[in-house]
């Protein structure tokens, strides 16, 4: 059964399928296929035998019939024929449910509790927390609304601050950047905008100082907090890293989201950037950042082994319930890893596969066999 059939038949009402998270949105390769039809030309067509091989593979391994939009998407980017690329709808319906206790995901992914759940791990400095409608400071001391607003205003006089939902804010949804420099003539105007911004969030959000990032990542793109997406999986006594991707903003935007005009590029196991990254149009890879003109080839992410160790240590704390996790890690000005976000449910796999190849690589057969 195809993704569209799940929608039409109403089967997405089962929240545990977590395809529900994509109702009202569309998969990246779905838009890719639609764009081909809309413009009346086929940007890429799979070789007939490869197309048949893909369908046979997934029918034999999982007993499902799939469309090959996903494989067209990757073939357009690199010309590689590999049946093991995992369509995102197949991942959410079959694989993620097997790996993760999804009914537990919301509380574990609440950014307001990272400092407790991952105690000792560095996170962006928190100014104010709103938990279930109640205000707290960084140390979880209760505040009234007036005090919370004053604390944010004080922080704004020193740096920019970011406001974002503490639960389910993946993909950059509803993230606001506040900068008092726009109100240098009137603190009252700054307070008014701040109150209006916080009112928009209602409850369950976090206000953090904008992190001063690594000099290298700032050189690549200075307007956003650029993050390293690490995909890890718990395999018995080991935590394996499946994919490593640097996500960057673009066009003066402050978010590092490809869906919002940013770009991504793969990182090898030694911390070296790949030669080419990708914007939204995967048929046109880029070797330099369009905004900064920074050339990717030869660049090594500083302190990369510590980034990987950091992720593995954190994964151990939640591994009993969550075996498959996507982490967003920043580097501070001293190149130390900083936990920005842990993705347990809505962790898209297209960008990791676009930059690093089939998600499970040579272990794909073993993983799929475990689902039978």
What this model shows, in words?
A hairpin with a 2-residue loop joins strand 1 and strand 2. The longest helix is centred in the N-terminal third of the chain and has 15 residues. The chain is of the alpha+beta class. Helix 2 crosses helix 4. It is built from 13 helices and twelve strands.
Summarize the structure.
With 372 residues, this protein is of the alpha+beta class. The protein has helices spanning 3-8, 28-38, 48-62, 69-78, 88-99, 105-108, 114-117, 145-156, 187-201, 215-220, 304-318, 350-356, 364-369, and strands at residues 126-131, 134-136, 142-143, 161-165, 176-178, 205-209, 227-235, 238-248, 263-267, 273-278, 324-331, 337-343. It starts with a helix and ends with a helix.
* Content-based structural category: alpha+beta
Oligomer category: single chain
| Count of alpha/pi helices | 13
Please bin the fraction of helical residues: 25-40%
**Average predicted confidence as pLDDT:** 87
Percentage beta strand:
15-25%
Number of beta strands = 12
The CATH topology annotation of the largest domain reads as D-amino Acid Aminotransferase, Chain A, domain 1
Largest sheet: 6 strands, antiparallel
- N-to-C SSE series? HHHHHHHEEEHEEHEHEEEEHEEHH
Note poorly predicted spans. 1-26
Indicate the overall shape: globular
Name the strands of the widest sheet in spatial order: 3-2-1-6-4-5
CATH superfamily of the largest domain: ATP-grasp fold, B domain
In the CATH scheme, the class of the largest domain would be Alpha Beta
